[in-house]
What we know:
The protein is of the alpha+beta class. The protein has a single domain (2-88), classed as 3-Layer(aba) Sandwich (GIY-YIG endonuclease). It has four helices and three strands, in the order E-E-H-H-E-H-H. Strands 2-1-3 form a three-stranded antiparallel β-sheet, with helices on both faces. The longest helix has 14 residues, at 55-68. It is globular.
Amino acid sequence: MAFVYILQSRKNGNYYIGSTDNIEQRIKQHQKGRVISTKGLLPVDIVFKQACDDIKTARLVEKRIKRLKRKDYIQKIIEDGYIKILDKI
């Protein structure tokens, strides 16, 4: 099983969108500053995660969310608790 996840920086409110096949390990890497993309955002909280059937699907969903770019779309995903584009894949 794989996951798509969204982190939010407590420092500036920015979001980071990622995917992984080991969510616990990946979140620890982020929180310890071992991921270059989020090192400047620390501390971060995981505000959303959703399971996908496989890593290929998770990466596809991650890319589609990143293409949205608008903060309000990302906030809607977090509020809904579900990524609706998964229905279309």
